Amino acid sequence: MSRLSLSFACGLYDRMLPLYTKDVVPDGIDLNYVVLDDPRQIFDRMAGGLEFDVAEMSSSEFIGQQAAGKCPFVALPVFASRVFRHGFITVNRSRGINGPKDLAGKRIGVPLYTMSAAIWIRGHLQHDFGVDLSNVTWVQGSINDAGAHGNPAPPPLLKPVKIETNRSGKSLSDLLDAGEIDAIIGTDIPDSMKRNPSVQRLFPNFREIERELYRAKRIFPIMHLVVIKKTVFERHPFVATSLYNAFVAAKALALKKMKYVGAYRYMLPWLMSEVDEINEVFGGDPWPYGVEPNRPTLEALTTYLAEQGVTAAKADVDKLFAPTYG
Q1: Longest CA–CA separation in the chain, Å
Q2: CA distance 12 to 18
Q3: What is the chain's mean pLDDT, rounded?
């Protein structure tokens, strides 16, 4: 029987690399791995033109589209990107921001209000630190470049939010440096932090906060999942199981290689202590796939999406993903 040829657009992450090198091959599938290390480009090309059969996709954009009944994809409980986000909140201390609650009523830059990173950060601020964000003005734009962050088409918000588009000709970083906005949340650190001593992380001890978040709530924020074009899945439903099993195998191989400390695989001088911490905090696997190991994280994400007006109601976690049998 001939194998099904599918294109797959994704960053070349360690947990995906064995699929690129063909050390892991999905059953019945010839996977053409299209390496794109700019996630926004993948999202825009996939959402705008359905360019790929399988792709890395923003979790918030997928869930928002699915909830609106306008989603041309099905998703796998495979998480291409996960990032703790407390270290990605930067503030200008000269604007009177000394703690989280000082963000109330401020002007805060964000690449895209509905992006997964912003959803998570606002959720943490509201739920874990009691921050009132109801009167914040959100200024959308690229963090370290002038202009917009990609070319997304997010669903309309279902709750009123004060959002402005940055048309100043400056980056959000420059606006923060000048005190024209008070803070930035998102996916990058503003360049102005390197030159302005007043521009600092809101949480200098972000690693400790994030570790305790995981220990207390078992939440490790999911940024990107993997989607399959619905037309492909409907014609060839076996691809969900085949791909899921392959992603699991690829991640297991990457984790095995990372944990071999005879010769460090990554340029991390204290990799051995990092591996020790992974074993102690995460039970050896910091990146589980599937629904059940990620239920606390997925329940938090769907709660935040509803609270922030991206979805009309909290999505049912058990209905987010295509059925798989791996």
Answers
A1: 67
A2: 10
A3: 96
Q: Are 74 and 227 in contact (CB under 8 A)?
A: yes
**Number of residues in the chain:** 326
For residues 277 and 271, give the distance between their C-alpha atoms in angstroms, rounded to a whole number.
Answer: 10
CB crowding 97-124: b at 16 or more within 10 Å, else e: beebebbeebbbbbbbbbbbbbbbbbbb
- Over residues 102-158, the pLDDT tens digits come to 999 999 999 999 999 999 999 999 999 999 999 999 999 999 999 888 777 766 899
Query: 241 near 325, Cβ under 8 Å?
Result: yes
Q: What is the tally of helices (H) and strands (E) in the chain?
A: 10, 11
> What tokens does 263 get?
């010769």
Give 69: exposed, middle or buried? Use CB within 10 Å, 0-12, 13-18, 19+. exposed
- What is the dihedral sign for C-alpha 181, 182, 186, 192? positive
What's the average model confidence in pLDDT over 211-219? 97
Q: How far apart are CA 122 and CA 107, in angstroms?
A: 14
**pLDDT tens column, 148-203:** 887 777 668 999 999 999 999 999 999 999 999 999 999 999 999 999 999 999 99
**What amino acid is encoded at 314 in this protein?**
K
Q: Are 271 and 264 in contact (CB under 8 A)?
A: yes
DSSP 305-325: HHHTTSSSS---GGGSB----
Three-state SS at 66: helix
Radius of gyration of the chain, Cα coordinates, nearest whole angstrom? 20
Say which residues have a Cβ less than 8 Å from residue 60's Cβ, sequence separation at least 6.
114, 115, 116, 119, 301, 305, 310
pTM of the predicted structure, to 2 decimals = 0.96
